[in-house]
Amino acid sequence: MNDVGICRLQLYHYGETVSTPFFTETWRPDSFYEKIKKNRALGLHTLCLLDIRVKEPTFESLCRGGKKQYEPPRYMTVNTAIEQLLEVEQKRGDSVYSEETECVGFARLGAEDQKILSGTMKQSESVDCGAPLHCLVIVGKTHPVEEEMLDGVLQIRNCKLKDHMTEEGSRGRQERSRCLSE
C-alpha cells in the first residue's frame, strides 16, 4: 500500500482493497464489484491487486495423479484487469465505473524500472506496462491536491497515452513524466 503512494493520491482516501482474479471460460467471479461500488459511493479510491498464477498444476496432472506438471506462470496486466472490470460493469449495469473512469496503473513498484500511468480506463486498457507485477487504482473523488498531481505529475489526458517512468535521482526518487503526442 505504501508504494502506491508514489502517485500522490492521499492514502487515507483509499477504501477497501480488492483482488482481481483471472477469468476462465467457466469461472468469472465478480465479488470485487460490490467492494468497488461501496468505495465509489463513499468517494474513495480502490486499490486492485491483480492475480498471479504461479506453480498451478495442469488439469491433466490433477486427474492422473503421479508427478505434477505445472502451467506456465501468469501475471495479470493492467490491460487484462481493465478489460475484466469493464466486462463486469457491463454485466451488472450499476454504472459504478465506465471507460471514462480515471485510473492509475503501476508496474514493478519499487524497482528501478517501475512504471506509472494515469488516464481513463479506455486509454489505459491499450497501454503495455511491460513485465510484471502490476496493480491498478480506480480513482474516487479527488481532493484538489490530488487533482493537481494527476493533472501535473501524471498528466496524460490531452495526449496519446504513454507510460511514465520514475528514475533514481541524486536526491532520491524523482518523477520524470513524459507525455508523447503525435
TrEMBL record:
Lineage: Eukaryota, Viridiplantae, Streptophyta, Embryophyta, Tracheophyta
A single GO BP: protein histidyl modification to diphthamide
A GO molecular-function annotation: methyltransferase activity
Protein name in the entry: Diphthine methyl ester synthase
PANTHER family according to UniProt: DIPHTHINE METHYL ESTER SYNTHASE, DIPHTHINE SYNTHASE
NCBIfam families the record matches: dph5 (TIGR00522)
Recorded superkingdom: Eukaryota
InterPro entries found in the cross-reference section: 4pyrrol_Methylase_sf, 4pyrrole_Mease_sub2, Dphthn_synthase
